[in-house]
Amino acid sequence: MIIQNRRALGITGTLIGALLFCAAASSRWDHVPAKDHARMNPLGSRPDSIAAGALIYKENCAQCHKDDAMGDGHKKPGLRTSRIKSATDGDIEWFLRQGDLGHGMPSWSRLPEAQRWQLVAYLRSIQQQ
Amino acid sequence: MVRSSLSSALNSCRHLPAFLVLALVPALPAPLLHAQEKPYFVTYSHDLEEPGNLEIESKTALGQPSGSNRYGALASELEYGVTGWWTSEIYLDGQSTGQESTLFTGFRLENRFRPLMREHWINPVLYVEFENITGADKNMLEVVGHDGQGDLAELNADTRHEHEHEAELKLILSSNLKAWNISENFIAEKNLGHEPWEFGYALGAARPLRTLGSGKPCVFCLEKFTAGAEMYGGLGDVASLTLGDTSHYVAPIVGWQLPKGRLSFSTGFGLNSNSLDRVYRIGWASELPQIGTWFRRNGGTR
């Protein structure tokens, strides 16, 4: 019985180790699929999208990226960057959906897609300020 | 007779301070954010706590086993996002049974890991838990093996002395499809005191009532409400894998995002004679954002 338990613990430990090893691989937004890269914001032309996105930003993003989207100067990056300015709507929505779990950015797939697009509209608007 | 009643009442009150502390943990000052996770009570989705955030949550279960006393059980939970792919939690459990007593029933330590860094159609999460609880625990945070209402009907005076050291593994599979979350949990639990592996399941589906943000701060907007259902039950043990001789529940759920927290309600309906007729659940969750920065100089900036 003890040997069986040790074997079960060994297998479980190996499985956990393998899964954690997989966790070392990360998703970076340099690898946005072409299909997503080409997507346009379907809510981009709606005048209320920016205001709605601002509220979603305040509730979900400002805690890390700060109210002014300038980041904390340390691990939480600012969002007024040339990288975001040059990204397509689809790039930003893909990155919000995927997150970057290996570097502390959660996946926002928990938000409905429509709200992610509203957030994209807001992030676009602050690049022009 | 009077002395007996008085003694019983005093015995019941003996653990009241500890129980009140448990009940008040979620009411600590300065909760700044509403919690983001789905309003499930038993099912887990692949939503993990955001890194650096501490979620404080309470889950209350109210029920009455057939031929026994009403009870209320409270699980208070502290959940911390260690990294983007690892969340760690501690639960403190208690219960109060009418005509009997109020008890602290133990603690649980949990860890959830997301092995895959990308979002997929189905997202696996590995869940590992250690429980140190007594037989008097009535929180029903999962149903496994041959769990039934008979276990909940036993007297606190008898079950409080049964110590259960258990390891629990869950495979959580979860998908966000359109605005829906669909989650499936497969549970394997082992009492470390040489008892067989027991199995259970939990399934959940939930969706916000409105997917588009309204753009104005509001409390009663439809996008603040999430509705869905979960179903959970036991699957027997290694010796007898079965859907019978255990209990099963189906429970509609409603979650309400408030400015400072999330309120959840559920009524579970027992699906067979081993199940409670009804289990009423109420939950409250708040998040303290980025608590790690509280302990750094200059608010965490360098």
Structural class of chain B: mainly beta
Along the chain, the helix and strand elements of chain B come as HHEEEEEEHHEEEEEEE
Secondary structure: number of strands of chain B = 13
- Rg of chain A, alpha carbons: 19 Å
User: Looking across the biggest beta sheet of chain B, what order are the strands in?
Assistant: 2-3-4-5-6-7-8-9-10-11-12-13
Beta-strand content estimate of chain A? under 5%
Shape of chain B: globular
Features:
heterodimer, A: 129 residues, mainly alpha, Cytochrome Bc1 Complex, Chain D, domain 2, 7 helices, B: 302 residues, mainly beta, Porin
Can you tell me about this structure?
The complex is a heterodimer of chains A (129) and B (302). With 129 residues, chain A is mostly helical. Chain A has one domain (27-127): Cytochrome c-like domain (Cytochrome Bc1 Complex, Chain D, domain 2, Orthogonal Bundle), CATH 1.10.760.10. Chain A is 56% helix and 0% strand. Chain A is built from 7 helices and no strands. Chain A has helices spanning 2-23, 34-37, 49-60, 62-65, 82-86, 89-98, 113-127. In chain A, helix 3 (49-60) crosses helix 7 (113-127). Chain A is elongated. In chain B, a hairpin with a 2-residue loop joins strand 7 (163-177) and strand 8 (180-191). Chain B contains 4 helices and 13 strands. A 12-stranded antiparallel barrel of chain B has the order 2-3-4-5-6-7-8-9-10-11-12-13. Chain B has one domain: monomeric porin ompg (Porin, Beta Barrel). The model of chain B is unreliable at 1-13 (pLDDT under 50). Chain B is mainly beta and 302 residues long. Classes of the chains: A mainly alpha (129), B mainly beta (302). Chains A and B meet through helix 1, helix 3 and helix 7 of A and strand 1 of B.
